[in-house]
Amino acid sequence: MGKDVIIACDFDSAEKTFAFLDKFEGKKPFVKIGMELYYAEGPSIVREIKRRGHKIFLDLKLHDIPNTVKKGMAVLSRLDVDMTNLHASGTKNMMKAAIEGLTREDGSRPILIAVTQLTSTDQESMENDLLIKAPIDEVVMHYASCAKEAGLDGVVCSPLEAGKVHDRCGNGFVTVTPGVRFADGDVGDQKRVMTPAEAKKIGSDYIVVGRPITAADDPVAAYDRCCREFID
Ligand code: C5P
Hints:
Elements lengths: L3 E5 L5 H8 L8 E4 L1 H7 L1 H9 L4 E7 L3 H13 L4 E5 L4 H11 L8 E5 L7 H8 L5 H14 L4 E3 L2 H11 L4 E4 L18 H7 L3 E4 L1 H4 L4 H12 L2
The chain binds cytidine-5'-monophosphate.
């Protein structure tokens, strides 16, 4: 699995996104489009970023009845994204339906990964609000196993969980990890963070980096630094 740095383009308009991407000139970083940008601009933003030659992780975290997810995924597949995701809590049937929808006529499909428990969910809220009583680490690993059994390619997880996910599901099972910060940078609202070099050491396949690049004085230099620490 190719290691790469994915830039979280958390902007609320196409204008801001392209002003940012234009700074990269010849480079074509892998970009993540999340709910904010997708809901602001719709599928045209995906087509335009793709036309410019970037790989795209469309982070919309689908979660609905299997038939609806299957049909939604079929549309995303036609948009030619490279990676997309869903909530593992939608169950294995939903995940299997998603793969069916995502698979193109020629058998190819985008990489499909699952969100296990959101990193904003802690033991207390999981027990009280979701009535799940098992330890959260166990729940995360169980959801990762279910995703693997359903045929998905990997999970989104904290860099701290990436090693354990590989131990449980194999090194070929992709780990995509947000919560990355430079050793000398601001942590912001992320709680459990790792540097790109540490994420590399622990075996993350892709790191998702937002503000350390998008809010940097020199975003291209920050991106290059991430690539040097994580890939080289
Ligand atoms: O700016 P920052 O580097 O914190 O951005 C991280 C990106 O990864 C954001 O788009 C955020 O929504 C996403 N993400 C996350 N934690 C998760 C899942 C997604 O930070 N558990």
